[in-house]
Automatic annotation (TrEMBL):
Pfam families: DUF2065. InterPro entries: DUF2065. It comes from the Bacteria. The chain crosses the membrane at residues 6-23, 44-60. The keyword Transmembrane applies. The lineage of its organism: Bacteria, Pseudomonadati, Pseudomonadota, Gammaproteobacteria, Pseudomonadales. Keywords: Membrane, Transmembrane, Transmembrane helix. It comes from Pseudomonas flexibilis. This is DUF2065 domain-containing protein.
Amino acid sequence: MWQELGIALCLMLVLEGILPFLFPQRWRAAFSQLLQLSDRQLRWMGLVSMLLGTALLYLLR
């Protein structure tokens, strides 16, 4: 299980690095907009992201 978790972490880092690598100015602008959001909005985004990821994993397995 630890190996799969490590692989998932590595893939996440690769995927998260694609946008800053390909579009650094757009990524910086999007990140600046994220800094303007309230804690509550960021928490909702995080919750939705986790639930979507969990649902997709369930469907793929």
